[in-house]
Amino acid sequence: MINIIRNRIPRFVLYVMLVSCQNTTQEVRIIHVDERPQKGVFKLIQTKIDVVCADFDNALFRDELGYPRVDFKKFDKDDPGKVIKTFETIILENKYIKLTLIPEKGKPYSFIYKVTGHEEFFIPSVAQALSSPNKLGWWFALGGVEYTLPDEEHGDTWAAKWYWEIVEDSPLKKTVRMTVKEFRNGLQETIDISIYPDKSYYEANITIKNPTDKPVLFQHWINPMWSPGGQGEITTHTEFIIPTRQIYITERKFNNWMLDYHTQRNRKQSYEDSPLRFLLGWKSIGDLLAWKLEHGFYSAFSHNENEGIVRVFPKDKNPGCNIWAWGINPDPETRKRFSGSEKCLGYVEMWGGITHGFDEYYRLDTNEVISWQEWMYPFHQTGGLHYANKDFAVTFTQLPGGKHIFRLCPSGDLSKTECKVVSRKTKEIFLHVIYDSIYPKKKLPEFKLDEVKEDLELIILQDGKEVIGLPADNPPMFPG
Fold it and tell me: What domains lie within the chain, and their CATH numbers?
């Protein structure tokens, strides 16, 4: 028996077909989901934004390369005072998202999911100047997303001036190009940030070129600072979703508490059943690395709000993933140091790199280039995440008692997508959903199967081609 949870969906068309499986005939419902999206706003606006910052201007100086540095003896880190800094911004908006860029910083700063009205990025109440083990000795904690060259711990380019231009402002696409040169090695990075009228993602086309006359060894990391769910801070039941079987606890003193999660206190640990999948398992501040990515995505998902955000990328060019978080109950000093507020519960940094880890380097020879395309988007009502590509986020869950449920959230207007729940052994079809047309909206359809005594798999096809086969997974088990 198939139960369809309609959630006030305006139009489901159901057909019945006969499917032959091992000389038997099974009656299967084909469910057509046909929801036609409305047109909406699509615009690019140049404006300015005021940001509350710690007052450290009198402590700034330039080093021999031209980067700004901070003399921490010249201001009170605990009580630096506040100033308002005004930044030029570009707002890219369509019917699903509102993305604000601070292009002179090379930074996506704010990302509002208009479907729920929630801000997905972390934006501190006061942007802080923090000491850091990077080569500049400090970091400007402004929030949002940063793209970092040429090495770990935020690199240098967050401190450099980015040059930018609007390269397309048409009815089909809005694109802002941001370019920076890092002074240490002479690498040049260009990032084209684009949105489309009918998609809830922003697309980043990233190109790094070595225009110098010698090879360069470097790292590139993207550091999205996420607090999904619209609370302005990370929620207690947030899951850190990485498609990896194992993680590696990096060799830093502040990570030693993570070794308690392994009977032999090994740094290499299973991730599939680890408490570290959840904020509740993070007893303190720390970071960890994915050992090997099986798919090109990762996500942070707030189960409190049933909402998350995902980054999708080519894993052959971006094999690295690192999680850094404050812990479940950070002390007031940590909260204030990173956010300006003793009440803030924090956020998660889910780093992605063109190297597997922070001790590995990528090589570009003279005039050589590395480039790739990636996407980031919010999603909701999926109860987590089992798989994502640039078009959708999906879960296929086996509930207690043998029932199954699958949920799909599109990353914009979606069509020509099929979902089949089949027996992994016999390939018998138990459920067949065809998305003729679906779009992100507050209430999304979900589909349940009553108890089936089969090992089931969800097969997803786009344009008739199989994209992924997902075995049913259990609901998340939170620590405690």
Answer: 2-34+401-471 (no CATH), 47-379 (2.70.98.10)
